[in-house]
Amino acid sequence: MKSKLMSVVVAVTLGAIACKKDPPAARPAAHAAAEVTAPPNGRVAITVDGEGYHPATIRTAAGSPLTLVFTRTTDETCGQQVVFPSKHTTHDLPLNRPVEVTVTAPATGSLAFTCAMNMYQGAVVAQ
Ligand SMILES: [Cu+2]
User: Fold this and answer.
1) pLDDT digits (tens, 9 = 90+) for 74-116
2) Ligand 1 centroid to residue 78 C-alpha, Å
3) Which of the pair, 34 or 32, is modelled with greater confidence?
């Protein structure tokens, strides 16, 4: 009983640390565009830092393949993994090492990706 309670406390504490997010006011002005448009079969570099994904929105032609290249640039983030909920896939993102994820843009709507705790959110949006 006691040890179960302890593990819950530890998990919650770890979660709070892992998901630490800077307030919007701290956002540097020099960040990459929040949104980009990629050609079919394009490659899009996405930086994962303490604020989330940059860019977070990638527009591309409906149904076209796209390679997302995630690079996590800080340990001050809960972005150690990127999850594609609708694909049921999770990719580890080692610090400063680009990780390629090939996706297919949906016919309509968007393909979401998130951190493991669903705090950071991005999407490939069909257009
Ligand atoms: Cu998170």
Assistant:
1) 999 889 999 999 999 999 999 999 999 999 999 999 999 999 9
2) 4
3) 34
Residue carrying structure tokens 């705790």: 117
Query: HSE (CB half, 13 Å, CA atoms) of 71?
Result: 9
CA of 95 to the centre of ligand 1 (A): 16
Handedness of CA 33, 34, 35, 40 (dihedral sign): positive
May I ask the CATH architecture of the domain 2-126? Answer: Sandwich (2.60)
Residues within 5 A (CB) of ion ligand 1: 19, 78, 115, 117, 119
What span, in angstroms and rounded, lies between the C-alpha atoms of 45 and 74?
Answer: 16
Q: Are strands 89-92 and 99-104 parallel, antiparallel or unpaired?
A: unpaired
* Ligand 1 midpoint to CA 47 (Å): 15
User: How far does residue 28's CA lie from ligand 1's centre (Å)?
Assistant: 20
